[in-house]
Structures are given as C-alpha cells and as structure tokens.
Amino acid sequence: MAKERIQKLMAQAGIASRRASEKIIQEGRVTVNGKVVQLGDKADPATDDVRVDGEKLKFQDIEKVYYVFYKPPNVLSSNTKDFDDDRPTVRELIPVEGHLFTIGRLDAESEGMMILTNDGELKNKLSHPRYEHTKTYKVTVYGEPTPEHLEEWQNGVFIGPGEKTAPCYIKVLESNKTTTVLR
C-alpha cells in the first residue's frame, strides 16, 4: 500500500474523524514505528506500526457497517455527551459495538434521517464542504413568511459572528395563516 496521511489512516481504522485525529496527533498520542508523529506525517499501513495511545491500529480486518437511522425529536445528534444533558444521543439508541461516526447533524428538537458508520472515508466524502453535497430539509415555520424574508433566507442567514449559511433554494410547499411548510 502507498503511504497515507496518518489522520486519514486513523479515520479509516474507525478511531476518529480526520479533524479529531489531527487533535489526537497534536496531543502526541500517535506513534509510527515507535516515534511520535506530527501533523502531515505519513505511514504505510501494510508495513508501518501505527499506534494510538499504545494500541496498534487494525486496518485489514475492519468490517464496514452502515446504519440509516431516523432521529426522533429530543435526541442529540452527537456520539457522546459533551455537556450535562439528560437527552439520549443517537449512538445510545444503536446498541452495537465499536466506534461509529454520525454523518450529518440535526438540532436536538429536529427529526430526520442520519447515517452512522465506521467508514471514515465515506464520512469524509459525505460531510466535507469541499464535496458540496446538496442537503434537503423540510421545515415548518410559524406564520406566512413574506417574499422579502424568503429572499433574505435564500441569500444566507447569519448564525454567529462572521458566520453565514450558504445560499439556498426555498420552495413553499403549503401555507396557511398559522404555519408554512418550506423545502
């Protein structure tokens, strides 16, 4: 096999996402052939001894698994609870062994389809912004948005300091005085 970036190998082995793997590398927890690695280092999984926290990575015998999961409301999209919250995570609702990546996120109150897998490459190809995958949401809002509101939303909405959503296409599916369904 050819040499690959170590964070990519870690994702393929189901250790963590590429970004999380980069953090693990920066913390000095990864070695190749006994030497602590740096970001950008590469290894050949066929010949090099790659370890995280002293545990050897297994590349050949990992069976890829894929789950399509309908996330109900009041369930967290994350794998773990990073804060004090009584609501369950999607990972807690899927009783299987091993690490799973969640592909995509939905707000805790939202419901919809999510994919969980141990396939780090697939997660990267479906999640990374450079692949520009189209996402479709069905949203119910209170009232009837004006044409000006719809145009503003389609141009992108500020969701934080200097952080704006990408432009989108909005179609009104149904509307009455109390609610409007958008896609």
Overall description:
With 183 residues, the protein is an alpha+beta fold. It folds into 3 domains: 4-56, RNA-binding S4 domain (Structural Genomics Hypothetical 15.5 Kd Protein In mrcA-pckA Intergenic Region, Chain A, Roll); 66-131, Pseudouridine synthase I, catalytic domain, N-terminal subdomain (Alpha-Beta Plaits); 139-182, no CATH class. It has 4 helices and 14 strands. Helix 1 (6-12) packs across helix 2. 16% of the residues are buried.
A few lines on this structure:
It is built from 4 helices and 14 strands.
- Please give the CATH architecture of the largest domain: 2-Layer Sandwich
Estimate the strand proportion.
25-35%
User: Could you state the CATH homologous superfamily of the largest domain?
Assistant: Pseudouridine synthase I, catalytic domain, N-terminal subdomain
In whole angstroms, the N-to-C terminal distance is: 45 Å
Helix content: 10-25%
- Report the principal-axis shape: elongated
Number of domains: 3
* SS-based class: alpha+beta
The average pLDDT score comes to 88
Q: Tally the helices: what do you get?
A: 4
Poorly predicted spans:
none
Task: Write the H/E string, N to C.
Answer: EHHEEEEEEEEHEHEEEE
Kindly report the spatial arrangement of strands forming the biggest sheet. Answer: 3-2-5-6
The major sheet is characterized as: 4 strands, antiparallel
Instruction: Give the strand tally.
Output: 14
CATH topology of the largest domain: Alpha-Beta Plaits
- CATH class of the largest domain reads Alpha Beta
If you compute it from the alpha carbons, what radius of gyration comes out, rounded to the nearest whole angstrom?
Answer: 20 Å
